[in-house]
Amino acid sequence: MKKKAKPFWERAYKGHAYWLGKRKLGRVTLLSDDRGKYYWEAAGRAGYSDELDKAKAAVELAVSAADKQLDLFRQ
Predict the structure, then answer these.
(1) What CA–CA distance (Å, rounded) separates 30 from 9?
(2) Closest C-alpha to 7, from 71, 74, 67
(3) Which pLDDT value is given to residue 2?
(4) DSSP conformation class of 53
(5) pLDDT tens string 14-54
(6) d(CA 58, CA 25)
(7) Half-sphere CA count of 58, side-chain side, radius 13 A
(8) Looking only at Cα atoms, what is the longest distance across the chain?
(9) DSSP string, 10-49
(10) Letter string b/e over residues 31-63, b meaning 16 or more CB atoms within 10 A of that residue's CB
(11) Cα torsion for 17, 20, 23, 26, to the nearest 10°?
(12) What pTM does this model have?
């Protein structure tokens, strides 16, 4: 019986990336401006956060929600 692959975080230059195998699901980038410390983006969503843990949680939530939501344009 094969185990289902789980996404994982990998540290990158000035940020972190969220991977599932060789597919990048999202990322968190350290910023140098005043909008927030971290910029995150995943599954067509993006935002800012003051804490790395909250930015990572936002990426995981966006990926999880996108996985459960039906694609309107797929036939």
Answers:
(1) 15
(2) 67
(3) 73
(4) H
(5) 999 999 999 999 999 999 877 779 999 999 999 999 999 99
(6) 12
(7) 21
(8) 49
(9) EEETTEEEEEETTEEEEEEEE-SSSS-SEEEEETTEEEEE
(10) eeeeeebbbbbbbeeebebeeeebbbebbbebb
(11) -40
(12) 0.83
- Is the pLDDT at 75 greater than 60? The verdict is no
Q: Please give the structure tokens belonging to residue 35.
A: 């909008």
3-class SS of residue 67: helix
- CA 22 to chain CA centroid, nearest Å: 14
User: Residue 15's CB: how many other CB atoms inside 10 A?
Assistant: 16
CB 13 within 8 A of CB 31: no
Q: Which residue has the tokens 């800012």?
A: 48
CA 30, CA 43: separation in Å to the nearest integer? 19
Among candidate residues 37, 35, 43, the one with its CA nearest the CA of residue 66? 43
